[in-house]
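Ops channel
N.P.: pipeline sanity check, posting one input/output pair.
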């Protein structure tokens, strides 16, 4: 999908011209289109409902041969999410028709409601994300989808809004392409996407302001990452610890974005049930979000913005398997900061790898803020489902900043409490901490956060539990199934606000 912003005059080119209609009309569509729309409305062929698309053939002499109207529904219910969805509907419609070049006219009523920049971003996101397909390896490789070109024009906009709209299109495109990059890694089978695959993907991103370092087992051992390496012991697949440093000119401090990179989670000796275990390929979606963020940064995601912080990505990548050396329930490991941990359940491994990643970040970067993202608990799916991710932490301002970024991206976050009583539950008789709380307590997702809070200490930190939103959500035009590439766009909004 190639998206080009065009002026109104050039807008009605391409094989099909799609007009977005609000309240069943597109007041700024220009006299030619307006007449066709009025006629279609009179016959009742023009449906005002959200997601309806109607095509009107204009005859061989017309400037555009096919005029299509895509309904956004009622003006009062219009928002960026609807725009994102309608753009994906238009993309799918054009693909179904087999046209490669189409125009998309965006009338001014949309700007008034959504804002020019946000409208442009949502449209680019819908077009790119809607076009995404995971191409699995097959004996007969699938024919690549025809490359589409969308010419997007704002109609009836003031010129300064038109600029903001164009900037939004570009920004949305960067975030969406980065999300697609994350989805591709996330959807790959676990034998095709290993810790080494993630390391290669990260290294391929390096260059310019981005430095990428990959630590192997021996280096992690030297650093004392006993908690991370304890998880890795059960697998013959070598673990990798990824460090991505994005230097912002003039920045005097650092923020760390930490991702859980379990390329497969069998549960270890505390093994998971067989049903749906294949879904544990998605246990690296925290890492996917972090890599997606750096993809966006490397492709101009900051635009003109100059955050006050360098952005440091940390990914602890490993499998959690059941090899002869696998750690056993009750084993005690020592994290990089000296905390000893009783591994009461080897399936609570995400927090074990994140603990050392947080320690590493604190030791080498003294970050002003830490954000971690992890498919950490099944309990968060029970609490919040697949449409909302959980967030908790030790700093309300940081929490609010992420929640605001999630709102902008339409990737909602819901805060869970993390109090001293929850931290208390994580103490162990056989070590400083246990990696699970007792089943009698409940609060499984909070327990994960409470465990991590010991490693964050006084550093402002939040934890996003994305086990629900990483995959399995409601199909919604710009997301169909499989990996969602969740939180890439949220993180991009957040780092732009720093
Ligand atoms: N990767 C899982 C969490 C998960 C579950 C992600 C479902 C996506 C969908 C995590 O490592 C895990 O196994 N957590 C345990 C924690 C428990 C042992 C305290 C869980 O949720 O059961
Ligand atoms: Mn697990
Ligand atoms: Zn896991």
């Amino acid at each position: 999908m190639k998206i080009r912003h065009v002026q109104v005059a050039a807008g009605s080119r391409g094989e099909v011209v799609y007009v977005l209609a609000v309240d069943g009309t597109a007041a700024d569509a220009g006299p030619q289109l307006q007449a066709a729309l009025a006629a279609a409305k009179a016959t009742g062929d023009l449906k005002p409902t959200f997601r309806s698309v109607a095509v009107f053939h204009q005859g061989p002499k017309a400037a555009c041969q096919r005029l299509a109207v895509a309904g956004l529904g009622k003006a009062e219910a219009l928002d960026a999410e609807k725009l994102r969805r309608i753009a994906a509907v238009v993309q799918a419609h054009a693909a179904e028709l087999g046209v490669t070049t189409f125009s998309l006219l965006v009338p001014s009523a949309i700007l008034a409601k959504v804002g020019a920049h946000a409208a442009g971003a949502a449209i680019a996101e819908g077009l790119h994300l809607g076009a995404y397909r995971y191409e699995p390896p097959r004996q007969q490789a699938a024919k690549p989808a025809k490359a589409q070109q969308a010419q997007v024009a704002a109609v009836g906009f003031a010129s300064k809004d038109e600029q903001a709209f164009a900037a939004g299109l570009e920004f949305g495109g960067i975030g969406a392409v980065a999300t697609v990059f994350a989805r591709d890694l996330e959807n790959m089978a676990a034998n095709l996407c290993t810790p080494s695959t993630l390391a290669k993907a990260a290294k391929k991103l390096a260059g310019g302001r981005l430095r990428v370092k990959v630590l192997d087992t021996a280096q992690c051992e030297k650093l004392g990452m006993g908690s991370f390496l304890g998880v890795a012991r059960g697998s013959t697949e070598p673990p990798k610890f990824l460090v991505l440093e994005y230097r912002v000119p003039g920045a005097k401090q650092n923020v760390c974005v930490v991702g859980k990179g379990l390329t497969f989670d069998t549960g270890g000796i505390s093994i998971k049930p067989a049903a749906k275990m294949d879904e544990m390929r998605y246990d690296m979606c925290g890492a996917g979000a972090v890599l997606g963020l750096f993809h966006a940064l490397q492709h101009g995601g900051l635009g003109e913005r100059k955050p006050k912080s360098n952005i440091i990505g940390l990914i602890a990548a490993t499998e959690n398997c059941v090899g002869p050396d696998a750690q056993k329930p009750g084993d005690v490991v020592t994290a990089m900061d000296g905390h000893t941990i009783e591994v009461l359940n080897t399936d609570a491994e995400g927090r074990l790898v994140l603990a050392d990643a947080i320690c590493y970040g604190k030791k080498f970067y003294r970050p002003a803020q830490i954000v971690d993202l992890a498919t950490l608990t099944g309990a968060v799916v029970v609490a919040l489902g697949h449409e909302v991710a959980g967030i908790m932490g030790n700093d309300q301002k940081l929490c609010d900043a992420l929640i605001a970024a999630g709102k902008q991206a339409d990737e909602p976050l819901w805060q869970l409490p993390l109090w001293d009583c929850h931290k208390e539950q994580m103490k162990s008789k056989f070590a400083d901490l246990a990696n699970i709380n007792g089943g009698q307590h409940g609060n499984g997702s909070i327990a994960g956060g409470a465990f991590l809070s010991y490693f964050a200490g006084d550093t402002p930190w939040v934890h996003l539990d994305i086990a629900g939103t990483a995959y399995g959500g409601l199909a919604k035009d710009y997301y169909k199934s499989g990996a969602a590439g969740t939180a890439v766009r949220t993180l991009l909004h957040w780092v732009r606000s720093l």
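N.P.: looks fine end to end. The chain has two domains: 2-184, 190-496.
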